Amino acid sequence: MIRDITIGQYYPADSLLHKLDPRVKLVGTICYIVALFIIKPYTGYLLAALALFAVIKMSKVPLKFILRGLRPIIAILLFTVVFNLFFTQGDPVITFGIITITKQGIKLCITMAIRLILLIIGSSLMTFTTTPNNLTDGLESLLGPLKKIKVPVHEISMMMSIALRFIPILMEETDKIMKAQMARGADFESGNLVKKAKGLIPLLVPLFVSAFRRANDLAMAMEARCYRGGDGRTKMKPLKYKGRDIISYFVLVVFLAAIILMNHVGLV
């Protein structure tokens, strides 16, 4: 289960999506998320799914690798679907006891499931195709205007990049600690919820110790290299837009315009 968590991982490949400017991918991800929340079922979601499938093909990231990242959120997905199915008021379809399933509840739970799946896959593509360094540079560039109001843009971008970088590292560390504890007789599966929670204590304590140790090592390494924030720093590879980036922005505008038009004319 731990190894199924793919968020924050970078998948190296020679694709057009990997070569795009990180600012384009950040803006594209934001636009895609906004589109998922403004469209209505179901033709709009079909368009979003087709666009996402085309981008996945362009990225050359295996679909099996992308879908593997959905396994850890199955429990959250099922909870969301069930909650909307049983607690949405409307026209009754099935009634047994105090529980009533409504037409609006069925429609809402299907919509939420599709939206969550597309949202997770779409946002994961950004980290699959962008290195942490490029992601930091792109985020810092996009937030650049906020420097005028004294917002520490460089530090914020650096923290987000480090957090994404440490997710797969901590997942790997968790997997190693869990296997070591299981070899010593620890049981993380059997028992009720309370027993399972208590069984996680031998896992969480060494994990927190390891995380703080890594954070301290990183801080010492940055101080040893005289890191003092973003003031006066230059970049070895400055970001520059190319022709493919301008075309990508145009495609994004067309995609959002199509979604808005479909909503306006009632096709979704």
Automatic annotation (TrEMBL):
Intracellular or extracellular location(s): Cell membrane
GO cellular component, one term: plasma membrane
Keyword terms of this UniProt record: Cell membrane, Membrane, Transmembrane, Transmembrane helix, Transport
Keyword Cell membrane: yes
GO function terms (MF aspect): transmembrane transporter activity
InterPro entries referenced in this protein's UniProt entry, alphabetically: ABC/ECF_trnsptr_transmembrane, ECF_transporter_component, EcfT
Annotated TM spans: 26-53, 65-87, 108-131, 246-265
Membrane topology: Multi-pass membrane protein
Keyword Thylakoid among UniProt keywords: no
Coiled coil (residue ranges): none
Superkingdom, taxonomy of origin: Bacteria
Family: Belongs to the energy-coupling factor EcfT family.
Function field: Transmembrane (T) component of an energy-coupling factor (ECF) ABC-transporter complex. Unlike classic ABC transporters this ECF transporter provides the energy necessary to transport a number of different substrates.
HAMAP family documented for this protein: EcfT
Self-association and partners: Forms a stable energy-coupling factor (ECF) transporter complex composed of 2 membrane-embedded substrate-binding proteins (S component), 2 ATP-binding proteins (A component) and 2 transmembrane proteins (T component).
Name assigned to this protein: Energy-coupling factor transporter transmembrane protein EcfT
Source organism of this protein record: Anaerocolumna chitinilytica
